[in-house]
Amino acid sequence: MDAQKVMFFSLAMRLSSFVNLAMLILVSASTYASVALGVTAFSSSVVQASSFEAANNTVNEGSVISADKQNHSVNFKRDEKINVAVAANFAKPLKSIAEQFTELTGIEVAVTVSSSGTLYAQIQHGASFDVFLSADRARPQALVDNNLVHHGNLVDYAKGKLAFVYAGDLSSQAFNEISSKTSSERNCDQIARTSTKDTTAQINVQLTDCLSKQLVQLMENPQNKVAIANPKLAPYGDAAQQTLQNLSLWHQFLPHRVMGKNVLQTLQFYTTGSVKGAFVAYSSALDLPANLSSELPSNFNSAVNSESAEAITVIVPVPETLYQPIIQSLVVNSKTVATLSPNLFEPLPIKNAAAPVDEPIHNDNVEPTRAFRLSDASGVSSPSLFVQYLMSQGVQHSLTEWGYESTIASGVGN
């Protein structure tokens, strides 16, 4: 009987070891799966990031960028994720802004890129975006008017610019003829080099005349195509249509029209040689090849086409007198009011109430400030924090590097 007990006890111990080993294998497999998933998400982020570095890469509607978690605030880390929908023209700057925001706060940002109209329709049908950055004000305002989001969640975040890009040939007779015109009939290149003695109004008149003549010249050849973004989906496409109508060229343009779903695809039509010219966001045009001349001012760029040393891309800023201002707005997609002020990413004053009473009080002109701490954001939602960061002075002032005007500088915005 004792021998049977010993055998039973030995069998029980072996069974227990087997169960523990099985549990260890399951835990290890679960851990490996989590790591593999993290690597997949990171790899997807790298692939999507590269698509915005080269203007001629394929633009996929609904592409997703995931901001990588890096060194977070030493004070506090909010381990969360928000979903942000952005109009295609603002995708590249938002990628950089989202990465900076994640590094500072630990809040991961997944970005869905498409046309404003497509994203607006998705939100109407219940898409779970936390923040929607449109290329216009009309669609975010419509979400407010339809009581889908709180009226206090609407913010103007940037002012965009329209540009026309076209391909010229340095060896062509037409280019040489244009270059040899008198000063009263200067080409776009010469107008962009105009000295500061000309007023903005004078330059706009000259650029308008130049743009009109260039479009007429391109459309004289039935084979030449000109691209715009879909005016029903993309505000920059709508601005392009307004420009052509104000130049009385819309009907003449229609046989040459090629439409993209958004401005990135429109630019892709041009960079791949499918069209001879294109109306695009000025910010998107900045992705074209490097300048030919370092003497060109910031509002004009000539670049050698990578396919031919004789082909030249000319970027002409479309005068803002030809289209309605492109004020880009966002909404925090919630029926609850977002916490957008005070902006925790602005320098905060330091209260010296805890200082010893025997210490002298320094009354300097500049009040001491301290850096942002996420631990101060208790009760502030992650989408609200993201909008606060986008609207902070440092980020707003950096928008000029991407080809936009700050809403602070342009005098618009809430």
Automatic annotation (TrEMBL):
Keywords: Metal-binding, Signal. It comes from the Bacteria. Pfam families: SBP_bac_11 (PF13531). One of its GO terms (molecular function) is metal ion binding. Signal peptide: none annotated. One of its GO terms (biological process) is molybdate ion transport. NCBIfam families: modA (TIGR01256). Belongs to the bacterial solute-binding protein ModA family. This is Molybdate ABC transporter substrate-binding protein. It comes from Alteromonas portus. The gene is modA.
